[in-house]
Amino acid sequence: MDIPKQTTSKRRRAGRAGFAIGGLALLMLSTVALARLKAAAPSVDRSSVWTDTVKRGPMTLEVHGLGTLVPKTTWTVPASTDGRVAKRYLLPGTAVNANTVILVLTNPQLEQETLDAKYQLKGAEATLEEISALVQNQLMERRTAAAAISSQYRTAEMQKDAKEQLMNNGLAAALDVKTAEVQAEELEKQNDLAEKEVEIFANSSEAQLAVQRANVDQKRALYKLKTAQLGELQVRPGINGVLQELDVDVGQQVRQGTVLLKVVQPMQLKASLQIPETRAKDLSVGQEAFVDTHNGIIPGHVIRIDPAVVNGTRAIDIELEGSLPDGAVPQLTIEGTVEIERLADVLYVGRPVHGDADTTVGLFKLVKGGKEAVRVPVMLGRASVNAVEIRRGLEVGDEVILSDMTASESYDRIRLQ
After folding, report:
1. Same structural domain for residues 351 and 385?
2. Whether pTM exceeds 0.85
């Protein structure tokens, strides 16, 4: 019996379709299965990571900052008057004493004013001498006249007494006695007036001289001022130290009050540190500190905390208590650590790269003899410069990775090789 060719062809096509559908289903199942598989743990070079072991015991809370050594006092020298820089003898960095001449200014107008003040003083002094001589002569004339009247008065008193005695003896008339008494009384009045006139003239003369003396004092003060300003055209630092800044050039015209130079005393320095704003909240004056000059560590304590925040930091000043090492100069770059608090018994570990205080972070804890590490959530507490308190998530003896593990943040497990 013959089978029709059309039926056979249809069966073949149906078989092929079934195989295709089966293959497609198998591919879909494989894709789903692969999607459900976990990514293989990546491998990390053991020597490239930094680890630390969790400990329990005392821990010191510290904050760290960068800064510079700065002078305790900077002595600025302003121009006492207008002038032009004629000479400059020294450059910054030179040791100077109080009387070292650093700059010379010129001011022709001041020189003329000083000369005028000198002659005005001489004129006032001459006028004082002239008035003093004049009033002395006039006073002497009045005293001479008063002395003559006083002599006449005493003579009249003596004559009156003599005539009274003669009248008592019957040798003189009462009229003569009366006349003598009247003359004596008149001369007494003249004598009193003469003495008062001398006193009044002496007082008025002293007042007149006082006015002139005040004029002389005024002229002398002006002359001293001009002389001092003229002397200050030779600019001196006024203290022993090191010339730190000198920002004027020869030929430059400067105005009164312009700061010409700055002088510091290099062995009287303090540390100025910049502390991150988030760490500065626990600072207080008096806390112990240590300053690293990269040539020695100097102990000290906090003496000032700037209340303002600038660029995310607060400035603090450290009083240095030890002797300065060699090379310690103003503006030297330094590092400083301030001790905030000492904790007696806490669970702690080295501070992770991404481990701020009072946060929860994921840290890789070493397992299987250090061949693998698994991510665990860790609650951190108080943080110091190089250590952080563990509140939850780790135990004593756990070893964790502190390095930056951002590249493995999508994995919960890594292999260490």
Report:
1. yes
2. no
